């Protein structure tokens, strides 16, 4: 009786082992296509699938699409070799992988935005403190005119939304005072429009110079900010030219 039970148990173990081996051998993962996002590298993509060394396999699998392994561009679709996908195990589907990758990308973007917001907030606080110091110094000296903050004029930030702050940061980054022009104030403000983005406007000494509706796309915000820089410089040069003409009479 004991031997029969032992044989029966052995058969059961053998059958289960066969099922396991067959299931593992027959596993044929779905082909996976990965869409490259801004900032991606082959090493980072491979690391997201479990091992950075797999970048070589990914490169070889897409040799017809990638001329230089150090250069891939956003929107490019790369084939992930089946043995890499298989290593994610049997219960993981392509949708699961894409969902996890999307969540990871979203988390990284949110973390970066938080850091950028903190830096911008600190910058705005420091800048506003400088403005207040300059105003107090001006009031204390009794002088009617001022020379800005040591760089010709002031660029004030009165934005409130994330898009508005991005616009101001880009504008300020690219701004340079026109030569020999000082004593002016540029104010960047916004008027949020529900479900339609936000309306940015720029005034020079309380005169409207630029107005534009922003969309939630960074590259469009950057383009609008650079255009605004160009327009503001032209307006200041025009105003200075007119003032010089009147001064000549």
Briefly say what this structure is.
This protein has 249 residues and is α+β, with helices and mostly antiparallel strands. The protein has helices spanning 2-26, 42-48, 55-61, 82-86, 94-141, 162-174, 218-248; strands at residues 32-35, 77-80, 153-158, 184-192, 198-204, 207-214. Among the domains are: 25-92, LysM domain (Membrane-bound Lytic Murein Transglycosylase D, Chain A), CATH 3.10.350; 147-248, Double Stranded RNA Binding Domain (2-Layer Sandwich), CATH 3.30.160.
List keywords for this structure.
two-stranded antiparallel ribbon; 15% strand; disordered N terminus; four-stranded mixed β-sheet; Double Stranded RNA Binding Domain; 6 strands; Membrane-bound Lytic Murein Transglycosylase D, Chain A; alpha+beta
């Amino acid at each position: 009786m004991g031997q029969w039970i032992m044989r029966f148990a052995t058969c059961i173990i053998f059958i289960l082992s066969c099922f396991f081996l067959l299931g593992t051998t027959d596993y044929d993962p779905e082909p996976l296509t990965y869409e490259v996002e801004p900032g991606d590298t082959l090493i980072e993509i491979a690391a997201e699938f479990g091992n950075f060394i797999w970048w070589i396999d990914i490169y070889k699998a897409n040799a017809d699409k990638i001329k230089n392994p150090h250069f891939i561009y956003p929107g490019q679709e790369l084939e992930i070799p089946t043995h890499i996908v298989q290593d994610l195990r049997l219960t993981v589907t392509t949708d699961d992988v894409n969902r996890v990758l999307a969540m990871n990308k979203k988390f990284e973007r949110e973390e970066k935005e938080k850091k950028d917001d903190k830096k911008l907030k600190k910058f705005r606080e420091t800048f506003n403190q400088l403005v207040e110091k300059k105003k107090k110094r001006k009031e204390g000296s009794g002088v009617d005119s001022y020379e800005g903050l040591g760089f010709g004029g002031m660029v004030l930030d009165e934005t409130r939304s994330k898009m508005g702050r991005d616009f101001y940061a880009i504008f300020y980054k690219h701004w340079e005072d026109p030569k020999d022009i000082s004593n002016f104030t540029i104010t960047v403000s916004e008027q949020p429009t529900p479900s339609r983005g936000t309306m940015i406007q720029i005034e020079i000494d309380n005169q409207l110079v630029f107005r534009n509706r922003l969309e939630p796309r960074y590259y469009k915000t950057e383009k609008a900010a650079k255009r605004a820089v160009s327009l503001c410089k032209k307006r200041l040069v025009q105003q200075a030219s007119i003032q010089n003409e009147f001064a000549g009479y």
